Amino acid sequence: AMIGDYLGQHEGFPLAVMHAYVDSMNFSGLKFDAAIREFLKGFRLPGEAQKIDRFMEKFAER
Question: Which domain holds residue 11?
Answer without folding.
Answer: 2-61
